[in-house]
Write a structure and sequence with these properties.
With 175 residues, this protein is mostly beta strands. Helices cover 0% and strands 73% of the residues. The chain is built from no helices and 15 strands. Strands 1-2-3-4-5-6-7-8-9-10-11-12-13-14-15 form a 15-stranded antiparallel beta sheet, with no helix packed on it.
Length: 175
């Protein structure tokens, strides 16, 4: 039956699906192209939606853009995302960074720590290519709360931060 088993479907928008079908919907393992985009998805489906493990690949250069877990067509769970700003490896919820993760920007900055709804929020460590580093609390992507900023020279500041700036009482250690 075309509604159950293995199927090859070309949709009206020109996209193509090859894989498992159950009750006329994508189910199990399959491969799908995207209309107007040089992308292909290879992975698991449940009730017509990407769910389970899967990879999103660029046909232009063969690069894996996302490798990880999906739920209801969104990145959900653990995965690795390569995008224009850099690479993220960690937890996703509803297609955004959420939970623990590591974000490496193309410029060389590296953040490891907590994310909340796509923003660095909670405890984390941010390392800069020049050797400086910040370890402490973040809120909406900036230093906010208690933390320690260490310069590559060996000097440091331990104290309070607000909106990315040292504020209030703190201790400066000069080498």
């Amino acid at each position: 039956s075309p509604d159950n088993g293995f199927g090859i479907t070309q949709y009206s928008d020109g996209t193509l699906y090859i894989g498992g079908v159950l009750n006329g919907q994508r189910e199990g393992h399959g491969v799908r192209s995207y209309a107007g985009k040089a992308l292909i998805y290879i992975g698991d489906y449940t009730r017509g939606k990407k769910s389970g493990r899967g990879r999103l690949l660029s046909l232009a250069d063969g690069q894996v853009l996302y490798d990880g877990e999906w739920r209801d067509d969104a990145k959900e769970g653990q995965g690795v995302l390569v995008y224009e700003k850099g690479t993220y490896e960690g937890s996703f919820k509803g297609d955004i960074f959420h939970g623990r993760g590591k974000l490496t920007w193309k410029g060389g900055d590296v953040y490891e720590g907590a994310f909340f709804e796509g923003q660095r929020t909670g405890f984390g460590v941010l390392r800069f290519p020049n050797g400086d580093a910040y370890e402490g609390e973040f809120l909406n992507g900036t230093f906010n709360g208690k933390g320690v900023y260490r310069w590559a020279t060996g000097e440091s500041y331990a104290g309070s931060f607000e909106n990315g700036q040292a504020v209030g009482t703190g201790v400066v250690n000069y080498q």
